Amino acid sequence: MRRREDPELLSGKGRYIGDLTRPGMLHAAFLRSPLPHARIVSIDAQQARSMPGVHAVLTADDLPPGLGAQPCTHLFQGQRETPFYALTGDRVRYAGEPVALVVAESPYLAEDARDAVVVEWDALPSVGDVEAAIADDAPLLYDDWPDNVVAVFEQEMGDVDRAFEEADVVVTERLRIQRHFACSLETRGVLAEWDPMLDELTLWTSSQILHIARDLLSDVLGMPEHRIRVRVPRMGGGFGAKFHFYPEEVAVALAARATARPVRWVEDRLESFLATVHAREQVIEATMAATEDGRITAVKADILGDLGAALHTVGYGPIWLTSVMITNVYEVPNARVRARAVATNKTPLGSYRGWGQPQANFIVERLVDSMARALDIDVNELRRRNFVPPDHFPYKSLHHVFDSGRYADCLDRALGMLAERNWPQRVEDMRAEGRHVGIGVAFYVENSALGPSRILNAGGVEQGGYDISRVRVEPGGEVTLYTGLCEMGQGVKNALAQVLADELGVHPDQIAVVDGDSHICPYTGYGTGASRGASVGGASVMKAAGIVREKIARIAAHMLEADTSDLEMEDGDIFVRGSRDRVVTMAEVGRAAYIRAIDLPEDEEPGLEAVAAFDPPQMAWPYGTNIAIVEVDVGTGKVEFLDYLYVHDIGTVINPMLVDGQIHGGVAQGIGTALYEELQYDLDGQPLFATFMEYVLPTAAEIPRIAIEHQVTPSPLIPGGMKGVGEAGVIGAPAAVVSAIEDALRAYDVRISATPVTPATLLDLLDEAATRSHGAAT
Amino acid sequence: MSVPVAQDARTVNLTVNGEARTATVEPRLLLADLLREVLGLRGTHLGCEHGVCGACTILLDGEPVRSCLVLAVQADGRAVMTVEGLADDDALHPLQEAFREHHALQCGFCTPGFLLTALYLIEADPAIDERDERELREALSGNLCRCTGYQNIVDAVRDGAVRLRTTKERA
Amino acid sequence: MKPPQFAYLAPTTVDEVLGAMREAPDDTSILAGGQSLMPMLNMRMASPRVVVDLNGVAELAEIDDGGERVRLGAMVRQRTIETDPRIARRLPLLADATTHIAHVPIRTRGTVGGSLAHADPSAELPAAICALGGRLHLRGPDGDRVVAAHEFFLGPLTTAIEPGELLVGIEVEPPPAGSGWAFLEVARTHGAFALAGVAAVVHIGSDGTIDHMALAMCGVGGAPYMAAWLAEMAIGERPDEALFDHVAQRLHEEIAPYDDGHATAEYRRRVAVVLTQRALPAAAARSNGGGSS
């Protein structure tokens, strides 16, 4: 099914944040700290204020008294507070932290004036490495703390120490996952308009959290929600980084009030690398124990998460999630994790597709590869022996309850694809020719359908997990769906329209979907993320549609003088089963509901709409297999894909075209993690990146074709059976790619423990392996 | 010899999507900003402003260029084609149709740049659909996409070449 | 990311360009294809008082292949080098090297002179022009002068162009008829700057020994590396693996590469060896019509 928004987007008519204008609109530019850690001695904006076309320069001194700190909504137990504000006035803690805002008549003039603002900095000792940050002599980011540790999370099940004592085989991995980030092609942006008469704010923002952004604005500005209208226009990708509430959203709003003019700010690419939340960076030590017949008995992991300078909107959530996903799909009775979130002088850490799950998957699947090698058994056989079997669900993992899974079936199907394509033989043949070819497998599980509100709240998340939909049949019979979920390219509006069309027996073209306006769209608990749109959103649509459907049936039954139980709905007609000539149209029902009350049953209220909330009883747990087939050029260290296979189970598939698109994009991002993307800092926290020359995104020439098969097992918990797919592709790809590279280099016994695997690091690893084997030989 | 030193605004006459347009601009104004902010053609997107991402790619006298790396004054006397010039009234261009059929876009931000690059590549090599996968992917590697993993874009460009050939044969 | 203010001059002749450059001799940027200068302006890493645009100077955009040597105006576009049949016939190495520069929408604007005058250490064209023994034509207030490619590149973003001078063109004598060539590079992604690259030309005489061989590398030092000792080592030798390994090992000792975020100096050194070991046989195989282009 083709997407409804495509004609608009294909002809350049999509209106993204940078395309919006308002009469009298001004443009903003931020002055940011060039230093990782410094006191601000003074800011001199006098010259900037006098420049042509400049309307205002705001610094921390110009912020209203009582302005709140940027909120953190994920308040996990024991975490410290790291308050920061829309503009920083005293002390910056990362390069890129905003300290002043210039408002002028064009972006050109705003940048001219920004460059004329003079700041005197007093540089402070700084730290840009997470391990250095926990050393005794590390510079402190927050003076009244004893160290830089923002939070420690620990969880345990079973008797881990005993399991390790009794283990036949123990393997340990010390892993490092690099700092990188969502990097949507459209950067962030804000347009604020303040009505001085009504004292009302309208804020357009490129954001995945429509109502949450409004609520947080309300908190920070100290004004009621109903005087704030947040609107989200077309979004050029989000991938989690726009799941956050940023200082710029507050600062631009205040600039609009200060100038009494609409003000627009579009993040430029250079500042996007510093001002948008970073993700993923962790150093992990993990150990796995097993019996000699290949039963995994225990896993433990010590995770150091590099949080950057402060807790952003989602706190240290991603680091926490890594720790509790440490047993993946395996029935491991004993596990112990410690996750520490550590402050460094770097951009705050936040969300990126998959949250902490790609890291957890990398840890476990690396351990599984190691364990298979140590036990000298086939790694997929090791997986099979340890998968949670289908009859053990619901299964209590370290922290979560998994709803369902046919893991072995999924793995076998993927291995079947591999065999159908004759890869095992082809790899043998290529190796015989002296080529370095390898196959890597990673199995993942994903935490989706976030989430049960009570579980989220009990865990410290100050956000709900439900979704609310409003379904309205209009007087003319067309249908309008109002959703609080945001369309960012993933096609959620199409998926929801499809669900609604099926429920009401109308064509999706008869349905308009309204999103992106906090004044008219119903509240959604958690924003658009966590792979929850189709599952939680879809279920709330079904629930609201069910109420409307019943009312349609009552009205139609009355008009047809039939019994509601005898009616069917199809193609916008409501008819008596078996006799299509006893029919009323949706338009006739709509007309009755709004205009001709005389046609309604006597006790029926006018109107034809319903609002319904769905709060999932548990999270859902889709899963899947990634198989990467790669070739390594041992002369240059370049890695090339020969094939990529993917089999997953996400429950009911609403729209295979959209689902495949999500997987393609997710896997491509996972390949970016494995081989290309890194936000490098020096040890003091000075960024070593500035542009797309340093931050390498893979192009069409690097990403392989991905062959996808769907195993469909509807979720037992979600009406409709959808589990969710948004993050799935990104989770297992890094582990699969790295495993394939190791397999390609099996002759050299190369071990990979860090990403990205660049050509230079790969040649170093080959050297190291050569030294190791040389040492072993002598 | 005298060359005027002009710090001030100057007039640019150009053709955009077949229409003559005139604007008075500062010399430093980027062509992308002329199209977007002055002429209101906001289909040309700015994704990086340093020539890497390709979102702002337009055709300048028929050749693809980064409109973030060209000054508006440099377009004086020249012909620009933007994404807005592709569709004929309400009917999508065959290449746009191919993108839609193959789900070659998600957020749509990179799409205008891909369309114009692909249009040029197809015109330069009408049998581009017969090229092997690697050649086609390398030809498209100057445009970044963060949503699709490129696979459907590659398929759409292949199909677009076939559709364009068929359209031309019919004409 | 918007350019700062500057005075913009758009002369139409080389003489006018030289005159325009006198307006602010120490504070003028020359705008050729703009694929390096424009990003620097957008990032405000460059803020010249005057920008002199060469795009209206028709005489700089000409290709003359009438004589023994091929003359390329400084403003000949990289896309033209890539697609012009005259270049493909007479300087296939140059056409080949050009296809490695970024992407088509960059090459449609990017110029041969712009790339040479910018002198990025990882750029392809400087290495290719060095391997071909090109001569760079400069014109300044004191008249014309010609600088050989190997004396033109002085270091990262540094050339022999004096203040007030303009690179007007490049003159290249095609290697002996029947020469084979190869251009190989390694980059993080397709079209990204080369981590290391090699341009090689080999001609094998009728006796089966090498009578012409040239090699230059990019990405392995501040300026293209030219193996001046190559002729002595290779002329009169048979084009076999032992010779190529010998050349590669000598290179390994000679080059002085650099570290950056993408690769270490040691990596560049090693890959320079590997690329050389691949490029030389590939070029030799193409000599005298061997293989296809």
Low-confidence stretches of chain C: none
Residue-averaged pLDDT of chain C: 95
Number of discrete helical segments of chain C: 12
Number of strands of chain B: 5
As an assembly, this protein is heterotrimer
Q: Note the beta-strand portion of chain C.
A: 15-25%
> Which percent range describes the beta-strand content of chain B?
5-15%
Q: Which parts of chain B are unreliable, with pLDDT below 50 for 5 consecutive residues or more? A: 1-6
Q: State the largest interface.
A: A-B, 55 and 56 residues
Helix content of chain C: 25-40%
Structure description:
The complex is a heterotrimer of chains A (778), B (171) and C (293). Chain A has 778 residues and is an alpha+beta fold. Chain A is built from 20 helices and 28 strands. In chain A, the strands form seven sheets. Chain A has a seven-stranded mixed beta sheet with strand order 3-5-1-12-9-10-11, with helices on both faces. A five-stranded mixed beta sheet of chain A has the order 7-15-14-13-8, with helices on both faces. In chain A, α10 packs parallel to α19. Chain A is globular, with a radius of gyration of 28 Å. Chain B contains five helices and five strands; from the N terminus they run ββαβββαααα. In chain B, strands 2-1-5-3-4 form a five-stranded mixed beta sheet, sandwiched between helices. In chain B, a hairpin with a 2-residue loop joins β3 and β4 (63-66). The relative contact order of chain B is 0.14. By secondary structure, chain C is of the alpha+beta class. Helix content of chain C is 33%, strand content 24%. Chain C has twelve helices and 14 strands. In chain C, the strands form four sheets. In chain C, strands 4-5-10-6-7 form a five-stranded antiparallel beta sheet. Chain C starts with 6 loop residues before the first strand and ends in a 7-residue tail after the last helix. The mean pLDDT of chain C is 95. Chains in contact: A-B, A-C, B-C. At the A-B interface, α1 and α18 of A face α2, α3, α4 and α5 of B.
Helices and strands, with pairings:
The complex is a heterotrimer of chains A (778), B (171) and C (293).
Chain A: H1 6-10, E1 26-32, E2 38-44, H2 46-49, E3 54-59, E4 91-92, E5 98-104, H3 107-114, E6 118-123, H4 130-133, E7 149-157, H5 160-166, E8 169-177, E9 189-195, E10 200-205, H6 210-221, E11 228-231, H7 247-259, E12 263-266, H8 269-275, E13 282-290, E14 296-308, H9 317-324, E15 334-343, H10 357-375, H11 379-386, E16 395-396, E17 401-402, H12 407-420, H13 423-432, E18 436-445, H14 453-458, E19 467-473, E20 479-483, H15 492-504, E21 511-514, H16 533-560, E22 567-570, E23 573-576, E24 579-585, H17 586-594, E25 609-614, E26 623-633, E27 638-649, H18 656-676, E28 707-710, H19 728-744, H20 759-777
Helix pairs in contact in A: 9-10, 10-19, 15-16, 16-17, 18-19
Chain B: E1 10-16, E2 19-25, H1 31-38, E3 57-60, E4 63-66, E5 79-81, H2 94-101, H3 111-124, H4 133-139, H5 151-170
Parallel strand pairs in B: 1-5
Antiparallel strand pairs in B: 1-2, 3-4, 3-5
Helix pairs in contact in B: 2-5, 3-5
Chain C: E1 7-9, H1 14-21, E2 28-31, H2 37-42, E3 50-53, E4 63-64, E5 70-73, H3 78-83, H4 85-90, H5 92-98, H6 104-107, H7 112-118, H8 124-131, E6 135-140, E7 143-148, H9 149-152, E8 153-155, E9 158-159, E10 166-172, E11 180-187, E12 194-204, E13 210-218, E14 225-226, H10 230-234, H11 241-254, H12 265-286
Parallel strand pairs in C: 1-3, 2-3
Antiparallel strand pairs in C: 4-5, 5-10, 6-7, 6-10, 8-9, 11-12, 12-13, 13-14
Helix pairs in contact in C: 5-8, 11-12
